[in-house]
Design a protein that fits this description.
By secondary structure, this protein is of the alpha+beta class. It has 2 domains: 229 residues, no CATH class; 147 residues, no CATH class. The chain is 31% helix and 9% strand. It has 17 helices and 13 strands. The strands form 6 sheets. The protein has a 3-stranded antiparallel β-sheet, with no helix packed on it. Strands 4-5 form a two-stranded antiparallel ribbon. A two-stranded antiparallel sheet has the order 6-7. The N terminus is likely disordered. Bound molecules: heme C (2 copies). The site of one heme C (HEC) has 25 residues, from helix 4, helix 6 and helix 7.
């Protein structure tokens, strides 16, 4: 089979995606999904190597685009030859990437060298960590969702630097920094395959219309029975993580890579959240635990060595957060996924219910909050009338931009006029503005903190820092 280069997406290169979420495995065959919760250390190590040192995709851009990208910036850049360190820092800043905490040829986490577009020569490719690698307070972490990423700018600039025109994209890749539309990318890739995964020339009309999303932290996966924001996929599914390979791999190649993805999953299950680095007031934390027990445990579970996670999927009319992610996953897309090799072992649940209440381990480090990243701090999440309708994202994840009282990133609330002016002045700066009026970006719902007193709320936040 001759793999196609996707051009209906922006993202030929972007064979990322993965994501057609689904769930509950009505067709789980005993044995096949079993045993991954406590992976063996050699599998973890193989998975770490495969994910961080090797990569899976052919390179789509030539190596030289890294230095050429600066041509498309509206600010002067250090010379990549004379000042490679300065250039690397500016490159990361520009696209919201982070230093790699593993050997990566001087490239930021999420970009890697691989075999080039013209066969043997080296070239550049993105990998899982472009979205699933983040930093906070100057430390990079594999598995922390990248809340700074400007995926569209990265893909478009690298493609332009190749002298190519990015293909027309029929959907929003990201309207601001941090969110990305991994779901619609995966849906687009799958629509170009028949049920036997042979390549189609014209996409199947699957009707999916997914919105941009905040990338979830990987360290939650080990607590989950079901995964993705809607909890419709068995958390043990390995094949679901391989959807991004659909940009170039045949069914036989996918089958051959499944063991490596089993190892990658083992590595993901071994990840732990970073600890809160500032002082925590023990008395307030203990009072906060009582508030948490009364108001939050039934959905979010308990923490510590005996912690139990109830894996609750909360109906949309109860949770009240933005419905676009839930409704955007069409029945036809789910049926198509389930009819392919991806659905053979574990099927995506055909019934949409609501959103899964996530575990809150490491929640201090994962702002902005909710599945669409529409709320900048824990304090705003727990007092819904104070949530800003339009707010700025920080220029970096350095602690100077971190708000340890509200817990999350410092922000400025903007008026519609200020947003319009900023868009006119510089599209680059406008990328730092989250507008919750956009499709899929509503900051509604989850009003479980509204009736707390301010003292209870602050105690609760102190407790959340300790998770
Ligand atoms: C373009 C950004 C992007 C890339 C690249 C990406 N992901 Fe994701 N990933 C996401 C987003 C966004 C979600 C949430 C999707 C949802 O629930 O709708 C997600 C969800 C997940 C989840 C489920 C987490 C949970 O707790 O529910 C896993 C596991 C995962 N991705 C693994 C991977 C692997 C492995 C790769 C590389 C092969 C990868 N991802 C590449 C953006 C990305
Ligand atoms: C009825 C169930 C329910 C209750 C009660 C509840 N939550 Fe949630 N919570 C959810 C669901 C569902 C989500 C995901 C919603 C979404 O992303 O659209 C969520 C999301 C969150 C998030 C965002 C996590 C992230 O990484 O974006 C935080 C923080 C949170 N809840 C804290 C709390 C606290 C603190 C309480 C107690 C005051 C609480 N919740 C009570 C169901 C609940």
């Amino acid at each position: 089979m001759k793999p196609i280069r996707l051009s209906i997406l922006t993202l030929a290169s972007l064979a990322i995606g993965l994501v057609v979420r689904g769930v509950v495995s009505r067709t789980v065959r005993a044995g096949e999904l079993a045993g991954v919760r406590k992976p063996d250390p050699t599998a973890i190590e193989r998975g770490r190597r495969a994910l961080t040192l090797e990569g899976f995709l052919k390179a789509d851009w030539s190596e030289s685009v890294y230095a050429k990208a600066a041509r498309f910036w509206d600010q002067p850049a250090p010379d990549p030859e004379r000042d490679p360190t300065g250039y690397a820092a500016r490159f990361r800043e520009r696209y919201g990437l982070h230093p790699a905490p593993f050997p990566n040829d001087g490239l930021p986490m999420g970009l890697r060298l691989g075999r080039g577009p013209d066969g043997g020569k080296k070239g550049l490719q993105i990998d899982c960590m472009v979205c699933h690698g983040g930093s906070i307070g100057g430390q990079s972490y594999v598995g922390l969702g990248n809340s700074q990423l400007d995926l569209k700018a990265l893909l478009f600039d690298l493609t332009h630097a190749m002298g190519r025109r990015p293909p027309f994209s029929t959907f929003v890749i990201n309207s601001a920094r941090g969110t990305n539309n991994a779901g619609q990318i995966a849906a687009a890739l799958l629509s170009l395959r028949n049920p036997d995964l042979s390549v189609r020339s014209f996409p199947l009309p699957l009707g999916a219309n997914l919105p941009e999303l905040d990338t979830p932290a990987w360290w939650h996966l080990k607590r989950k029975k079901t995964m993705y924001y809607d909890g419709r996929t068995d958390a043990r599914s390995v094949r679901t993580n391989m959807q991004f390979l659909l940009g170039e791999k045949s069914l036989d190649q996918l089958k051959a890579l499944e063991p490596a993805f089993r190892d990658v999953q083992a590595y993901i299950l071994s990840l732990e959240p970073p600890r809160y680095p500032f002082p925590i007031d023990a008395a307030r934390r203990d009072r906060g635990l009582a508030v948490f027990t009364k108001h939050c445990v039934r959905c979010h579970g308990t923490y510590g060595p005996q912690g139990e996670y109830p894996n609750q999927i909360i109906p949309l009319d109860v949770i009240g957060t933005d419905p676009a992610r839930l409704h955007g996953l069409s029945d036809r897309l789910v049926a198509h996924y389930n009819a392919t090799w991806f659905g053979e072992v574990s099927q995506v649940d055909s019934v949409p219910t609501g959103y899964q209440a996530p575990p809150l381990d490491g929640v201090w480090a994962t702002a902005p909050y909710l599945h669409n990243g529409s709320v900048p701090t824990l304090h705003a999440l727990l007092d819904s009338k104070t949530r800003p309708a339009r707010f700025t994202r920080p220029p970096s994840t350095s602690f100077e931009h971190y708000d340890a009282r509200q817990v999350g990133w410092k922000y400025t609330e903007l008026s519609p006029d200020q947003v319009a002016q900023s868009r006119k002045r510089s599209p680059f700066q406008a990328g730092f503005i989250v507008d919750t009026g956009r499709q899929g970006m509503a900051n509604s719902g989850h009003r479980f903190g509204d009736r707390l007193t301010e003292a209870e709320r602050l105690d609760l936040i102190e407790y959340l820092k300790s998770l």
